[in-house]
Amino acid sequence: DAKTTQPNSMESNEEEPVHLPCNHSTISGTDYIHWYRQLPSQGPEYVIHGLTSNVNNRMASLAIAEDRKSSTLILHRATLRDAAVYYCILRDLQTSYDKVIFGPGTSLSVIP
Amino acid sequence: DTEVTQTPKHLVMGMTNKKSLKCEQHMGHRAMYWYKQKAKKPPELMFVYSYEKLSINESVPSRFSPECPNSSLLNLHLHALQPEDSALYLCASSHLGLAGAKNEQFFGPGTRLTVL
Q1: B23, B89 contact by CB (below 8 A)
Q2: Strand pairing category for A106-111 and B4-7
Q3: Residues 6 to 45 of A: which have CB under 8 A from any B CB?
Q4: Residue A102 at interface with chain B, using a CB cutoff of 8 Å
Q5: What three-state secondary structure class fits B83?
Q6: Chain B nearest C-alpha distance from A83 (Å)
Q7: Tell me, what's the pLDDT at B100?
């Protein structure tokens, strides 16, 4: 499975934008980029996913580099509720099962 | 209803006990998963069920025995566990289809297991 690397931790001020980077230099053409987050004392939750084009939804935006070797999750205005561990995950389109392998993730702290 | 429920929330057991964890979803998902999560570590995949059949076992010791009695229920039977098996056990479910699509996994809140 292709691997991802993320910073161990990041800090943001409340109501400021946050850019969470992810490197995936060995990504294959059939890998989708998914982001999940895990709030304290909860199970992970889906945030966003993309293949080649930038994506927006109500939670966040995903910017994907043209060579697809990196991506950035963008939270437009961080709130205290966004303090969580953010996981960048590659999911292979070709597999017939939904194997989700979590890397170490980035622990985001939001400062009031 | 987009909820995955897990019972119990907390479980303490001795090394000779037999216990079971239960997971339930009513979203019509035909894939269900067990993950193990140690403190400050990411979740680790243990088992995947698709259409009620075991499709992935990530080399999990036999003291963990999964069961999927129907499309809504997933159990994890525990027997002769070790203290190092203490962890948060997460259940998840998803639709089956192209793995790269938005087949998002919905996670339950987990069962916090302590083995004495």
Answers
A1: no
A2: unpaired
A3: 30-32, 34, 36, 38, 41-45
A4: yes
A5: helix
A6: 14
A7: 52
More confident residue, B45 or A95: B45
Tokens of A29: 């053409």
Measure CA of the first residue to CA of the last residue in chain B; give whole Å: 36
Average pLDDT, chain A: 91
Residues B36-63 pLDDT 10s: 999 999 999 999 999 999 998 999 999 9
Q: What does the pLDDT average to over B14-34?
A: 94
d(CA B47, CA A96) in angstroms, rounded, equals: 15
> Which tokens sit at A85?
């561990």
A contact test, residue of B21, B58, B95, B105 with most A CBs within 10 A: B105
CA quadruple A51, B43, A106, B108: dihedral positive or negative? positive
Confidence of residue A96 (pLDDT cuts 50, 70, 90): low
Look at residue A103 in the predicted model and tell me its pLDDT.
Answer: 87
Strand ranges inside chain A, DSSP E: 9-13, 18-23, 31-38, 45-50, 55-56, 61-64, 70-75, 84-92, 106-111
Which amino acid is residue A68, in one-letter code?
R
Q: How far apart are CA B81 and CA B59, in angstroms?
A: 16
pLDDT for res A30: 83
